Amino acid sequence: MNKILIVLVSTLLCSSCNHQNTEKAAVNIDQQFDYFKDRFVNALWKQYPGWASSVGFHNYDSILTIPNNTEKEAGLLFSQKYLDSLKSFDINSLSQNNKTDYYLIKNNLESTIWYAKEFDSGSWNPAEYNIGGAFSEILNTSQYPLEDRLKNIILKLKNVDLYYAAAKENIKNPTKEHTDLAINQLSGAISVFDTDIPEAAKSAKLSEEEKNILHERCKKAVNEINNYVNFLKSMKNEHPRPFNIGKDLYFKKFEMDIQSKFTAEEIYQRALQRKKELHLKMYQAATALWPKYLGKEKLPNDSLKLIKMMIDKLSIHHTHRDSFQSEIEQQIPKLIEFIKQKDLIYIDPSKPLVVRKEPAYMQGVAGASISSPGPYDKNGNTYYNVGTLANYSATEAESYLREYNDYILQILNIHEAIPGHYTQLVYSNNSPSIIKSLFGNGAMIEGWAVYTELMMLENEYGNNAPEMWLMYYKWHLRSVCNTILDYSIHVNKMSEKEALQLLINEAFQQEAEAKGKYKRVSLTQVQLCSYFTGFTEIYDLRETLRQKKGNSFNLKQFHEHFLSYGSAPVKYISEAMLSN
């Protein structure tokens, strides 16, 4: 009996030792991976100093990367080197947190190689060569003194001529659409060098020599930008590359950019089905509202016409073109108060949100957007960029304002600001893993913003008014049709006429909005799929967890837990949350 006890004790001790050794090994592997991530990120900023500046890491602000073949090859070698380093780690031995980081790093490096070798947009998209944003970000950061920022700008400006010489060399067969965008945005970028930087230098404590050098180099930058614009305007390109990228490039770009559990084809089919469901909901809502607003008119037999008539009736209620931005500013505190009352998610009052006119160098793609400080500048301003209506005719402005009427404008602010992009990106910057913040997944970011629109109305934002619900369905249809439009144009070669028919007659958009969206889809690829794809995955996850947890499910806890994973792809967040 004693012998048996001794054997059992020995077995248990060995088992305990083995378990402890296994745990130590797992800890060591995760520690090794953490060291690898630190080395990788530090090397990443040396390789891509412009990207570093944009996320608030300012050690390399003085460096302007020249986009030539030497730099391209260096980027390919960098990506391959770190892909090879990743192979030394057994992904199944990593923690859940590090597994996700592993996938994110791997996808980033593989994407870099694919973009350089296969997509090669640097040869057909002249708008990629716009230095306005890079210099503006350095000028406007508050992380270090103005004088030091201007000194870095002086150094960074030194090789602007080499930069645009390389850009001209790279452009082979540009699309007409991207050429027009480049000319428009670069004309706006000039203001950074002939106005913004010189104005800032007036109050800076620089020596006269430094001010003179800065002045001359700003003039040189303006001259180089103008030369590049003239190069684009005079370029003979009788057979420009079509902006439609085709099925093969589209499917691969979707895989790389979206990182979804769905394929491009699957999400396209889901969007088509969702459009049918929304049309039914909108028909029911519009029919119920008909007596209140159009009671004297006969109900049309065509359900889409009926919906459009009701939307047109409600859309006449909108702000004035001159008060569009101020109206947005006034709505932000109301959204914060509603979220506090309903206890939906914590909003950090110390993180500033600034509503501003969209900078000139950003114009031409989206009418409203968020510019968030990076994880190295967590306390910096988040900017809500609002497109200007200054250049719109009276008819165009009225069309635009009807699109962003009193109901839709509230939903837009939910999406862009509270608790949409602004809130999510604040949480992302506070993620314990900088990888998840740096390699932000567009489908997760946009999907969260789209999800919050529905979530707010589910919690009685707008007092459950049928008018608000009808306009929400219209707005949500926009995300759905973004996917249909993007896929149809780039894969199925949908014509402009067919696209406008979809947007105006089936998505009930104003003509100005529809034309703007067509312009956007001609300048981007796959990104418009991110809204509906991310929304679908987030909503599916929430409902799965609600069913799994039953009465113990808490909406606020779900939101904060979900956002604690930074901006990782939803499929990885789902894996982590469902495994708990």
How would a crystallographer describe the biggest sheet? 3 strands, mixed
- Structural class per helix/strand content? mainly alpha
Strand order of the largest sheet: 1-3-2
* Oligomeric state of the chains present here: single chain
Average of the residue pLDDT scores: 92
Low confidence ranges: 4-9
- Secondary-structure element series: HHHHHHHHHHHHHEEEHHHHHHHHHHH
**Helix content range:** 55-70%
Strand content: under 5%
Query: How many individual helices?
Result: 24
Number of E-type strands: 3
Amino- and carboxy-terminal Cα gap: 43 Å
Silhouette:
globular
Radius of gyration: 26 Å
What does this structure look like?
This protein is mainly α and 580 residues long. The chain is 68% helix and 2% strand. It has helices spanning 2-47, 49-54, 69-86, 96-119, 132-140, 146-157, 160-170, 176-202, 208-234, 247-258, 264-294, 303-315, 324-342, 394-403, 406-416, 421-429, 434-438, 442-458, 466-490, 496-506, 511-523, 530-549, 555-563, 570-579, and strands spanning 353-357, 368-371, 382-386. α22 (530-549) runs parallel beside α24 (570-579). The chain is globular. The relative contact order is 0.10. The model is unreliable at 4-9 (pLDDT under 50).
Question: Could you provide a short overview of the structure?
Answer:
The protein has 580 residues and is mainly α. The chain is built from 24 helices and three strands. The chain has helices at residues 2-47, 49-54, 69-86, 96-119, 132-140, 146-157, 160-170, 176-202, 208-234, 247-258, 264-294, 303-315, 324-342, 394-403, 406-416, 421-429, 434-438, 442-458, 466-490, 496-506, 511-523, 530-549, 555-563, 570-579; strands at 353-357, 368-371, 382-386.
